[in-house]
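Exercise 7. Given the encoded structure of a 494-residue chain, write a plausible sequence.
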């Protein structure tokens, strides 16, 4: 099987110790035998999925036991294999990882309430806490599992596509973000958005392509200019382009008036050796080009809450082209891309020791919330009380996900109101809004929406937009649409 051969080639490259590679090879044979009679919806042998998950974990530079658990993650749930058999053959650590992934997989989300997946209810949150607290690697394996499922979602029914996509956008995307696994978050979001809003996805993807076609030549010229200057200054650095994801653009457009207000659809990323060089490069860029006021962000001195570090600046070239730069060290870049997986890689032996001894693994400061989960899990295992409410807002504080009555998903900033939803649906619908139902009940215009709400716009033909609505709107997108409507009505009245 081609997939198995390619995986073993990658594993052999990553794991130079013969004992490690042998354990992975045995796990592959074991999983292949256990899944031999199973097929995926595509008609392919089921083993292709575990191999794909293990391949992703290899690409993330995860440790041997994580890769082995990736190969075996469905064996207990789908083949009825006892965990003791897995422990006897591959060790307790692998069995615990497989058990943790199985526990998370058994918790399913509903359409109306994302808390069914990462719930605030004691029973299911206990499962999550115990799974994560047993070994943080469980999260990473589950993300790899979900990522491959999304990559092959076309074989599922439309109903299951929507369910998986909602679950992924609402839960796994924010989770990857909190783990600072930027590359994973972007792919999860874009794949989910593609199924949830296919027309919107295609429209924005084309808009990105059009913008790139317009600015590609200028961007390349700027890149060459900067590269030559850094060589002349003897500052080691590599420069590459970063294209904004479709879903990120979608989120930006809920905050900004239009595409012209978004400057970072394509950015240049400069990766250098140390922090001092980062600041030197920032100074050089501001000598070469005019920096835009208010667009300089120092995430090195003040990292984002998920640990992301980088310098951001937006400049204007003499030709009037606006270009954003991101400047970071190699380690910052790896952490921005792989987050927790990178942290685990850096501290592999320390973490493995902690887990093998049944202790709590130290986390980077920015991932302290995981340490808190570990402590909570330890308390639960000891029969002690845990304050479950303390974990309610850890993941979902920035965005909310609400639905139309027919199940279409709408992603809005936290704090959005019913009119913000209406203007996301369509300006003409919002203009005729006479009232709103949230979860089947009439609500006021100033009622804050929350994730999982089903929102219905009650329209009437004789309703027209009113200036007072400006006080009942939270997003710039809705405010701009309303102002345009008010302007047109004023002009017509004259």
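Solution.
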């Amino acid at each position: 099987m081609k997939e198995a051969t390619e995986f073993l080639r990658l594993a052999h490259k990553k794991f130079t110790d013969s004992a490690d590679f042998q354990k992975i090879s045995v796990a592959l044979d074991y999983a292949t035998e256990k899944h031999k009679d199973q097929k995926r919806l595509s008609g392919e042998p089921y083993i292709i999925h575990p191999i794909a998950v293990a391949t992703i974990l290899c690409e993330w530079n995860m440790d041997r036991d994580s890769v082995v658990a990736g190969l075996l993650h469905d064996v207990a749930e789908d083949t009825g294999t006892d965990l003791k058999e897995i422990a006897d053959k591959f060790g307790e650590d692998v069995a615990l990882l497989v058990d943790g992934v199985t526990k998370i997989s058994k918790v399913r989300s509903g359409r109306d309430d994302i808390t069914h997946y990462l719930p605030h209810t004691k029973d299911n949150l206990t499962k999550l806490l115990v799974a994560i607290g047993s070994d943080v690697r469980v999260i990473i394996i589950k993300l790899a599992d979900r990522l491959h499922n999304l990559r092959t979602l076309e074989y599922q029914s439309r109903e299951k596509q929507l369910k998986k996509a909602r679950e992924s956008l609402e839960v796994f995307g924010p989770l990857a973000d909190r783990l600072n696994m930027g590359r994973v978050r972007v792919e999860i979001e874009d794949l989910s958005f593609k199924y949830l809003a296919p027309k919107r996805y295609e429209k924005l993807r084309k808009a990105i392509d059009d913008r790139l076609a317009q600015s590609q030549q200028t961007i390349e010229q700027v890149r060459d200019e900067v590269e030559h200057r850094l060589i002349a200054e003897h500052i080691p650095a590599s420069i590459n382009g970063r294209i904004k994801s479709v879903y990120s653009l979608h989120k930006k457009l809920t905050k900004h008036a239009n595409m012209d207000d978004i400057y970072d659809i394509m950015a240049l990323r400069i990766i250098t050796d140390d922090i001092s060089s980062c600041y030197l490069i920032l100074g050089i860029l501001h000598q070469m080009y005019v920096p835009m006021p208010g667009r300089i962000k120092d995430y090195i001195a003040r990292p984002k809450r998920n640990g992301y570090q980088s310098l951001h600046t937006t400049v204007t070239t003499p030709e009037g082209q606006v270009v954003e730069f991101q400047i970071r060290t190699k380690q910052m870049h790896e952490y921005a891309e792989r987050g927790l997986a990178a942290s685990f890689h850096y501290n592999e032996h320390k973490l493995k020791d902690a887990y093998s001894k049944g202790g709590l693994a130290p986390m980077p400061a920015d991932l302290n919330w995981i340490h808190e989960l570990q402590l909570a899990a330890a308390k639960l295992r000891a029969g002690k009380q845990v304050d479950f409410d303390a974990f309610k807002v850890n993941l979902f504080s920035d965005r909310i996900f609400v639905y139309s009555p027919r199940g279409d998903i709408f992603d809005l900033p936290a704090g959005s109101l019913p009119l913000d939803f209406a203007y996301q649906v369509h300006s003409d619908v919002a203009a005729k809004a006479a009232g709103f139902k949230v979860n089947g009940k009439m609500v006021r215009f100033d009622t804050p929406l929350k994730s999982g709400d089903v929102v219905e716009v009650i329209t009437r033909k004789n309703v027209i937009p009113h200036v007072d609505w400006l006080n009942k709107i939270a997003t710039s997108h809705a405010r701009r649409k309303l102002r345009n409507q008010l302007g047109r009505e004023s002009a017509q009245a004259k």
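Remark. The first helix runs from residue 2 to 14. Students should compare their own answers with the one above.
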